[in-house]
Amino acid sequence: MLSKADDYPIHQTPDPIAFSGTDRNFYDRYFFNGYTSDGKVFFAAALGVYPHLNIMDAGFAVRIGDRQYNLHASRHLHMERMDTQVGPIRVEVVEPLKTLRIVVDDNEHGIAADITITGRHAPIEEPRTTRRNGPRIVQDITRMTQLGRWSGWIRAGGHTVTLDEATTPGTRDRSWGVRHVGMRDPQVPVVAQEFQVWWVWLPAHLEDRVIHFFVNEDGDGKVWNLGFAMVGDGGVVEHLHNATMELDFAPGTRFPAKAVIAAQDAAGGTYRIEATPHARFFLSGIGYMNPDWSHGLNKGPLAVGYDEIESNAQAPHGSRFEHPQAFADIAMTTPDGTVIKGHGCFESIVIGRHAPSGFTSMFDVP
């Protein structure tokens, strides 16, 4: 099966590009987010390709004030990965590794957009992440992350928002590899792994640099995936070491209310980052942990859906609300005592047991 991509010198195996190894959970995804510097608007988009499921899906969502507007789309892929449009949503690569555009065509749900992100630095390649559940691969992925600035416009809920690069920072990433997509496997591995997720992701724009921190821990608090990169406006990537994080949670929830992250540079100097998350944005709006629009589900030849979330309401436990991002104030103290301020995106998933935090079951709270 030949496709448009086969005319580009990008093959990794003797197969045509339409075939991607043998694991049915292989995926290839774009992710984007952005926010106004006052925190009143937060938006995100995703487009995913699942070659072995023969499906492509996408989502675009925006929170304006206290309401989040969510547009979902899914279609059959027909083994053609170069057509990156799903219903009204499309992603365009304007300049590889630097500038991308998202267009949401006018539709019956009143949500539309034409926005462009331009990278502030070259993408950061994260180390390949591999994790198993007994003999079975649960995660085997590569990700690159790039912080940038947005321009364009978004329309939703009767509002039109104009984005200006000076006041609309954000982040994009590209990840590909193997992790669960589509329907669950009915036969779990023998001696199944404990279901537990502890994940924090913090890309942030500061006055003269960007930072990118992420961490996964198991139920005992053992770190199995960790990174902290800092990129100055000169473009040089510096990886910090020995990173630690302390989290305080909003009362009665598993939503972080404050984080303090510390790490060291190559000379042993300590950087201290304080992050204070504010209004939440729920990633179920673009498919993450959404039972109706989960990534890779077969919704038919073409399906488009829409819903809204009252984002300032107390979120009940459930898959739609366990995976938020939040606009966050950032203050970083450098080794010489200088304090540099900025804003970022604070993403978290805290599900199941985490002994250092005192969580003992799936959803218990302090």
Structure description:
There is one protein chain. With about 375 residues, the chain is mainly β. Helices cover about 0% and strands about 55% of the residues. The protein contains no helices and 23 strands.
* Low-confidence sequence ranges: none
Structure classification: mainly beta
CATH class wording? Mainly Beta
Beta strand %:
over 45%
Global shape:
globular
Number of helices: 0
Keywords:
single chain, 366 residues, mainly beta, AttH-like fold, 14-stranded antiparallel β-sheet, nine-stranded antiparallel β-sheet, 0% helix
Brief synopsis:
This protein is mostly beta strands. The protein contains no helices and 23 strands. A hairpin with a 2-residue loop joins β5 and β6 (89-95).
Give the SSE layout.
Elements: E1 26-35, E2 41-50, E3 55-64, E4 67-76, E5 85-86, E6 89-95, E7 99-104, E8 112-119, E9 124-125, E10 129-133, E11 136-156, E12 159-163, E13 169-179, E14 197-206, E15 209-217, E16 223-232, E17 237-239, E18 241-249, E19 256-264, E20 270-282, E21 302-310, E22 324-333, E23 339-351
Antiparallel strand pairs: 1-2, 1-13, 2-3, 3-4, 4-21, 5-6, 6-7, 7-8, 8-11, 9-11, 10-11, 11-12, 11-13, 14-15, 14-23, 15-16, 16-17, 18-19, 19-20, 20-22, 22-23
